[in-house]
Amino acid sequence: MLKKIVAGVLVCVLLTACGAGTTAPVDDPVDASPRPVVAYVPLDDRPDNVERVVYLAESVGYALEMPDADLYRTRLDGQPLNGNGTQFGDPYALYEWVLEQEAAGCDRYILSLDQMLYGGLVNSRETAVNVAVHPDIGTILLSDLLEDLMTALSADPNNTVWLLDSVMRLAPTVGYNGGTLDNYNLIRAFGSAPRQVLEGSELTLENIFQGYGRAPNGESTIYDDIHRENDVADNYDAVLRSMEARERKLRLSDEVQHILAQPGYEHFRLLIGIDDSSLENCIQTNEIAYLRRGLRTDAEGKLFDWLLSGVDDLAFKAVARMYLDEVNGFWNNTAAVRYFGGSENAPACDYDFQPLTEIVEEHFSFFGLEAADPEHAALQVLILTQPQDESAKQTYCKALVNALQECRKNHRPTVVIDAGNGRYGTMFHELLTKEAELGWLVSYAGFLDMAIVTGTALSHGAVRLAVLERGGGDEAMERAFAKTLADSVIKDFCYKNIVREDLLAYIRNELSGDPNNFWVPEIDRTDLVKRLEAGMEAATADVVRNFERSNLLVSLAATAQSAQAPYEERGWGGVELGGYRFPWDRAFEIGMDIRLGEFTEVHKELLGIYYQ
CA–CA distance from 522 to each of 6, 541, 612 (Å)? Predict the structure, then answer.
């Protein structure tokens, strides 16, 4: 016992006195070197579509050019309107902005069609309007706006254009355009009900539309059945509006595919994400099959366009593939997946339309990764699933952390995905913070909906692998990568399961407000931000300390090139968080600023303890 106490004291002394230490956070240095510019129109103004896309793009050497936020911002009911007098973005102004970038010589584009055509993801689920409005010119059909935009960008064969589209989710957004929880529940039940599955020549747009309101036998009306079963107020108008929006959206998605099928669009890529869905036959089933049939393939039969699970991660995936295509992929593209929890053969949540294993396999294909055994793979992917056995939660978590420590010991770059869907509480995060080296990961995802964690984690992990295989990036690229890793870990570990729970109770019980919209009724948002700041200061202390004692993997030994990039690490410096905000004036997600200190000499491991 005495030996253990002495050893513990010795470790504390060594950790205090030795090692590289941390550096005080500083502003990022101004980089005057030219960067390839990517014109980017986000899905909306949430952090996953703005700040984190900026970080990812900068981590591979791109500079994102974006329109003014007022042109793509989403406003919930009761909140101040945008400059165009609406709750949604401005399609015509965005169309003009893209043409301005083209005139200025831009040759890389990532464009969200949900924003370019409808003013954002939320509004794309609501509106059946087929026109965009210009204050001077008047209205223009969305189909004409789409065709004009694609024609203009196709004129330059040197352009690389990624178009991001989505399959509409089963129900619209509560608290937008008057949508209520009753509306949502009824429309989701309506959307989840089975339809006749169309195949072959029967899979046409008109047959899909006719089947929206009918059961598989083609006789009974789905709405009437659900209405009787749920005994809710008459929301038929909301259901009808949702069906009209679905029809409008699928028609324009079909128009995109028809245009791309023409000669001259070989430098365009289409990436379609499947929004909240269901494993069972539902209103999306025929839509997905129809759009999948329209995906282009190259001369070898490989997909040229893609349809994958997840929407909020579309920009991540587009940035990653754009970079991978430009550098001709990986030198070693092998990756090994290991699951912990026993539920990998089921969807990660109720909103996925595929088992987790299938989603991972499809994303491997998208990024050009090939499955391999852990001993020989260039990239390790460790995934915590929902617990098959509730009594074994700690065992699952510990097994993954042990595997991560082994990867660290053997210098195998690792992606960690928390697909537990909240079933582990804070157990997994606390174990990682205590026993792992968070800053050494090449990617982590667990925050937000489970439908997007795979795409989020693998986009960041795959593109980081490619950068590392080429000897790493410059200082600006490395700092951007560190920020995207810290942002993902801190929001998931500290905000999602700790601070947010406190805020939800505080808003409901003490402010008598709605956590989903701080304007209805209006509450003191200044006071709320102060509570957020205080909560995050306490909740992030251990995680920040872990990062500040971590090492950053900055280079890998090349395996298929003559130039040998050695395995190399650098020490993290200080990490400072601030600028906390609620982008949509709701508690679901937050934005924050991250300032980093200068990287240091490698932090030393002492007596098997990693920097804690």
Answer: 57, 32, 43
Q: Which two tokens stand for residue 7?
A: 């050893």
> Cα(612)–Cα(603) distance, rounded to whole angstroms?
11
Alpha helix locations (H) across 470-576?
A: 475-490, 500-509, 525-539, 541-548
CA distances to 284, 492, 493 from 486, rounded to whole Å, are 35, 10, 10
Token pair belonging to 293: 């049939």
Beta-carbon contacts of 371 under 8 Å, excluding residues fewer than 6 positions away, are: 334, 335, 336, 337, 361, 364
Looking at this protein, which amino acid is placed at residue 156?
D
Query: Which alpha helices (DSSP H) does 285-437 contain, by range?
Result: 285-293, 314-326, 356-367, 393-409, 427-435
CA angle 426, 432, 437 (to 5 degrees): 150
pLDDT, tens digit, 9 for 90 and up, residues 442-486? 999 997 777 789 999 999 999 999 999 999 999 999 999 999 999
Q: Are 115 and 44 in contact (CB under 8 A)?
A: yes
The C-alpha atoms of residue 357 and residue 341 are separated, in whole angstroms, by 13
Burial class of residue 607 in the structure, from the number of CB atoms within 10 Å of its CB (0-12 exposed, 13-18 middle, 19+ buried): exposed
60: closest CA among 365, 316, 380?
Answer: 316
Farthest-apart Cα atoms in the chain, separation: 84
C-alpha to C-alpha distance for 280 and 578, rounded to whole angstroms:
43
Query: Among candidates 426, 418, 437, 406, which has minimal Cα distance to 551?
Result: 437
In the 8-state DSSP scheme, what is residue 42?
Answer: -
- pTM of model > 0.70: yes
Residue with tokens 């964690």, as numbered in its chain? 453
Instruction: Provide the pLDDT for residue 340.
Output: 98
